[in-house]
Amino acid sequence: MLELSLGTADFLMVRGLGSEATAAIGLNRQVTFLLESAALAVATGVITLVSQGVGAGNRAQVDGAVRQSFRLVVLLGVPTTLVGYLASRPLLTALQASAETLAHGVPYLHIYFLGTLFLWTSVVAAAVFRGTGDTLTPLKLAGVVSVLNIGLNYVFVFGVGAVPAYGVAGAAIGTVAARGLGAAVYLVLLMRGTPHARLRVRPWGGVDWGLVRRILRIGTSPALAAIARNGARLVYLALLGVVPLGASLHAAVGVGLQVRLVSVLPALAFQVASATLVGQAVGARRFDLAHSVGQRSVLLLGLIMAGVVAATFVLAEPIAALFIVDPEVAALGATVLRWFAVAQFFSSLSIGTQGALTGAGDTKPIFRYTVVTQWGVLLVLTLALLVGLGWEPEGALLAWVAAPAVQVLLMQRLFRSGRWRTLRV
Fold first, then answer.
1. Do 157 and 143 touch, CB atoms closer than 8 A?
2. Domain limits of the chain?
3. pTM over 0.85, yes/no
4. Taking the alpha carbons of 380, 106, 367, 421 in that order, is the dihedral positive or negative?
5. pLDDT at 354
6. At a CB cut-off of 8 Å and minimum separation 6, what does 149 contact?
7. Residue 32 above 70 pLDDT?
8. Start-to-end CA span in the chain (Å)
9. What is the DSSP string of 383-415?
10. Is 245 helix (H, G, I), strand (E, B) or coil?
11. With contact defined as beta carbons under 8 Å apart, do 186 and 141 qualify?
12. How far apart are CA 99 and CA 166, in angstroms?
């Protein structure tokens, strides 16, 4: 919820700068999700190896995973920063962003990509703590960083005292500065050590390629799946931009994607809990317990999400009006929110199931499932219904619901098959 508050604050702060500024934040969020998704290649492998190492009482595996994960942050993060910085304008242009939206969006992305190492360090460090079962430390640090982030964003967006107003770009400046502080605190805590893990800095030590391969073998598929999913969303937004309602849809869907993060919070919480508990059970060779935890967590999550969907249906109009000034675009935003709520029910069950699979180490099929549902179901249906038949905007929204519905069926079939019982990670 604290992390969500950052994106929500950005939308509220730039609201008075016009629809183009709102559209820029919405489009930029999808681009930055690609960067955040790439960090999963390391974080997912870390949470699996750490949780299973804790369950097996293997401290050497835990510390080795921690040390090599931060080497990977540097090895992968530096080239990602350079590529992202250079690709900022082409990415937004490919999304059919207007000239005004580009003027807001490109400086934001340039600054955001410069903070890649801060972001990745925080994501991986949080995965270490959560893999050991300590979710309180990341929560405390997220609270401090979030408050600082919102305050800095306000200063740099509107200008305070000697600080000039940077507009949309100011939100990126505040975010990078706050994340830099958070990353530094995480490193200090891990170097001091926890009851289950410690980061031992060895500047002249080499990369343990065997352990690196284990981390990436587990984490690459979910990371590629996240990149494929967010890449499909970028294409989806580009398709929305070519229809007559394009500019309005960009603003409405941008808000819908941000509000969607509220409903994804229970799923993310269950994903972390399932990954840790299933991983510890598998590490202790208690496979029946691992299966029970995985299945019960998804069942309880489904009950919670039914309430979230109902609340979104009731509050759709006032939520849309909060973020969008234009009444017609706000009405479209309310429609988007309701369709997105239904889609999020299925998506959340898929996210929860992925957590159980992550703890068990059975992550390879996840990328394949995502490609089929996002690049197949979502984009093909959007092309056929929205662009081909001109069913605007319902065609695109129907496609948005169909994709996660198919994915949760595939993910549940994989977990229920029990093939993860035979894997060794």
1. no
2. 2-414
3. no
4. negative
5. 92
6. 6, 174, 175, 178, 179
7. yes
8. 32
9. IIIIIIS--TTHHHHHHHHHHHHHHHHHHHHHH
10. coil
11. yes
12. 18
